[in-house]
Amino acid sequence: MISIVIPTLNEALTLPRTLAHTREAAGPAVIEVIVADCNSRDDTACVARSLGARVVGGGTCRADAQNRGAAVAKGDTLLFLHADSWLPGGFPAKIGRALADRDVVGGAFDFEFSPHPDAHGLERRLLDWVVLVNRIRYRWTGNFYGDQAIFVRRAVFDRVGGFPPVRLMEDIGLSCRIKRLGRTAILRPPVLTSPRRFLSRGVARQFAEDLMLLTCASFDGSPQRLWEKYNGWNHGAGGRDNADMISNYREGLGPGAAWRGGS
Question: Which CATH superfamily is domain 2-260 in?
Answer without folding.
Answer: Spore Coat Polysaccharide Biosynthesis Protein SpsA; Chain A (3.90.550.10)
